[in-house]
Write a structure and sequence with these properties.
44% helix, 18 helices, alpha/beta, Vcp-like ATPase, Chain A, domain 2, Rossmann fold
């Protein structure tokens, strides 16, 4: 069997792995969280990131007959199945045929045999000739070349040959010219695995507001400040499409439960579903609404143990009921098979509908959803080990309610696109002494072009800072209720507090006036006594 396997691997096209190669990339084990190895190829149901011409990034779900857009063409996701991650594919379009993706192979060098100039001083904005045209080929001629079958590097070579200024350019300028033409006439698709880094880059390049402006550099700094590691039991509040939760899931690797609090009716962890990890690792995320935080904090150890026992009993009863109905369904199917042999198949179709209803109704609930506060408290044990917040909600109330769920000396990190909410949070934490080693910082990353005598920052980049991060460590001091500053309070609350504030200010002013009047009175009395003594001397 080994020679046949080797022959199949040799006959496979470039960029496609055979079944034997795929089998060698995974190792089954008892613990799926520890023995799971990500597949080296794209499989049906996977989510990948397709980077077109190293510029545009698209999330592609390889399911069924779905299609995704490459340039102006729509390509079937079946073209990606079986391709190795990291493969670069070239878009091929044949007249009357659907668009295909073929492996990119080394072909013709459009600049072969051409010289380069010493500098670009001879190149003007209006071209080389008097008519203002630096290219001898017009649009119609290029379209004729495309219609005749000239494409790819051959088409770029024809455009380069028609350029009157190409040989006057420097070698670096020629490479930039060729890169620009390749983006125009060739569509190259780069297949990338769905990781926390690639998902962050993809979402940030398309719509930064969708992920709360959480750029990859800020995400990495949050992970470092919060000291996320295996077994840390992280507590997360994430309204960034689950990007922060996905990064923690990838880092922890299924070695502990991850608690995700959500302020909406259902958790938004879309990035966790798209992450390329095993289902067992993905199911370590335990979600709960933020409205249950008070009940979780007040829950005692006895109540947590009772909630766990009740949950186990309900789960056992549910599984027993499902097993019984599955047995009834199997018996019904066997009866249908016997009846189908003797009569028409109409009765079998009618009996199949209740079976579908049973399967939909008796589906086993996901262990992540519907947990009671006692069950969540039992999973947390003596407390969580770290806290990460990247939310559109105000950070101060979240910290006030979530800090009691952490162990003493646990790190925390809070991200916000604005500086003012974190500054108010930091002032409150310093006043209550419920946190120490507080640090408020921002993140700034800018890519650079590195080349001989041409190293400089890239100009067309997102220059502004993605946001600010507040980090620190908890203490054994319980936080006091947080009071918002006057400019952040509602108008009704500020109006109600205005008379009391005015009375306090008036009392303070009167006290200051009395304190200033006492020295003046003493000075006046002393001056009066001295004048009386002077007046009495002549009489004596």
């Amino acid at each position: 069997m080994e020679p046949a396997t080797d022959a199949a691997a040799a006959e496979a096209p470039p960029g496609v792995l055979t079944g034997a190669t795929v089998a060698a990339t995974t190792e089954p084990g008892a613990n799926a969280a520890q023995s799971y190895r990500p597949s080296a190829v794209v499989r049906d149901g996977d989510t990948v990131i397709a980077v077109v011409n190293d510029d545009r990034q698209t999330l592609v779900s390889c399911r069924g007959n779905a299609k995704f857009k490459v340039g102006k063409e729509r390509v079937s996701c079946a073209e990606l199945l079986g391709r190795a991650y990291g493969t670069r594919l070239r878009l091929e379009i044949e007249r009357g045929q659907p668009a295909r993706l073929l492996p990119e192979l080394g072909g013709l060098d459009p600049a072969a045999g051409l010289k380069s100039g010493a500098n670009n001083s001879g190149i003007t904005d209006h071209g080389a000739d008097a008519a203002g045209h630096a290219q001898t080929l017009d649009k119609d001629q290029i379209e004729e070349l495309k219609a005749s079958g000239v494409k790819g590097e051959a088409l770029i070579a024809a455009v380069v040959a028609g350029s009157k200024t190409f040989e006057q350019r420097t070698e670096f300028s020629q490479q930039k010219y060729l890169k620009k033409k390749r983006k125009k006439y060739i569509q190259i698709v780069h297949i990338k695995r769905a990781t926390a880094l690639s998902l962050s880059e993809c979402h940030f390049s398309k719509d930064p507001q969708k992920i709360g402006h959480l750029r990859y550099d800020a995400l990495a700094l949050m992970m470092r400040k919060a000291d996320v590691h295996a077994g840390c039991k992280p507590l997360i509040v994430d309204t960034c499409q689950g990007l922060l939760t996905a990064a923690v899931v990838e880092r922890v690797g299924g070695h502990c439960d991850i608690f995700h609090g959500h302020g909406t009716q259902h958790p938004s962890i879309d990035c966790v579903r798209k992450l390329d990890v095993s289902p067992s690792v993905r199911h370590t995320v335990v979600t709960f609404p933020l409205t249950q935080v008070g009940a979780i904090t007040e829950c005692t150890a006895e109540q947590a143990a009772a909630a766990v026992e009740q949950g186990e009993r309900e789960a056992a009863e549910r599984q027993a009921m499902i097993a019984a109905r599955q047995a009834e369904e199997a018996a019904a199917k066997a009866a249908e098979a016997v009846a189908a042999q003797a009569a028409a198949g109409s009765a079998a179709a009618e009996a199949a509908e209740p079976a579908k209803v049973f399967r939909k109704r008796d589906r086993a609930p996901d262990r992540r959803w519907g947990l009671t506060p006692g069950q969540i408290k039992a999973k947390m044990g003596d407390g969580c080990g770290t806290l990460l917040i990247a939310s559109r909600f105000a950070p101060a109330p979240l910290l006030l309610n979530l800090l009691p769920l952490l162990k003493p000396s646990s790190p925390f990190a809070v991200f916000s696109p604005s500086l003012q909410p974190l500054a108010e949070c930091m002032e409150w934490l310093q006043g209550d002494r419920c946190a120490c080693q507080l640090e408020l910082c921002d993140v700034y990353t800018r890519p650079h072009q590195v080349d001989t005598n041409r190293t400089h920052p890239m100009m067309q980049v997102y220059l502004s800072s993605p946001g600010y991060i507040l980090s620190g460590y908890t203490t054994d001091q319980k936080p006091e209720p947080w009071k918002a500053p006057e400019h952040a309070r509602p108008k009704e609350e500020a109006a109600a507090a205005a008379p009391a504030a005015a009375a306090a200010a008036a009392a303070e002013v009167s006290m200051q006036a009395e304190a200033a009047a006492e020295p003046a009175a003493e000075a006046t009395g002393a001056d009066g006594g001295a004048a009386a003594q002077k007046k009495a001397k002549p009489d004596a």
